[in-house]
Specification:
InterPro entries: LOB (IPR004883). The chain is mainly α and 184 residues long. It contains 7 helices and no strands.
Length: 184
């Protein structure tokens, strides 16, 4: 009987000789860090989503995909709008690396790297965000069914149109329009 890899053990998944997670964890030194990284990614992408993303890649690229997913997830926690690439482009890559180190040590990635005004750890998971009340009220007809009003479109007579727009002629004129691309 072979012992499960640290990734499969933390996911409580059966591990076998052709495990997709085992080669992905070889670049991480300590078993605790391997478990922390796998658990973090499973929480971020979902267990099935993580396994699907890894198995969709060629076997020789699976460790690079795992590492890329880890950096992107940490980047999204630190900078939700632009992620790891936004941190790289703005010269703040050290914040992403610090978040990855925090995940590998078992702490939350935004404890020490995110600014004070960033959302808390619990609010980054969209599954726990309550729906906002938009203030819209359903309009119901007499039978109780929800009524969606149709837009009202009216045709204007030519004499009414000439009163609204006195400078325009009442007969139809042809308008030639040209579209061109312009960069400003």
């Amino acid at each position: 009987m072979k012992i499960s890899c640290n990734g499969c053990r933390i996911l409580r998944k059966g591990c076998n000789d052709d495990c997709v997670i085992r080669p992905c964890l070889q670049w991480i030194n300590s078993p605790e860090s391997q478990a922390n990284a796998t658990l973090f990614l499973a929480k971020f992408y979902g267990r099935t989503g993580l396994l699907n993303l890894i198995t969709a890649a060629p076997k020789n690229l699976a460790p690079a995909v795992f590492r890329s997913l880890l950096y992107e997830a940490c980047g999204r926690i630190v900078n939700p709008a632009y992620g790891s690439m936004g941190l790289f482009w703005t010269g703040q890559w050290a914040r992403c690396e610090a978040a990855v180190r925090a995940v590998l040590m078992g702490s939350k990635p935004n404890d020490e790297v995110a600014p004070f005004h960033s959302p808390s750890w619990g609010s980054c998971d969209i599954r726990h965000v309550p729906r906002l009340n938009t203030g819209l009220v359903d309009v119901r007809d007499r039978t109780g069914k929800i009524f969606k009003p149709q837009p009202r479109v009216a045709l204007l007579e030519s004499d009414v149109l000439s009163q609204i727009q006195p400078n325009r002629a009442t007969k139809e004129t042809e308008i030639n329009l040209e579209l061109s691309l312009g960069f400003h």
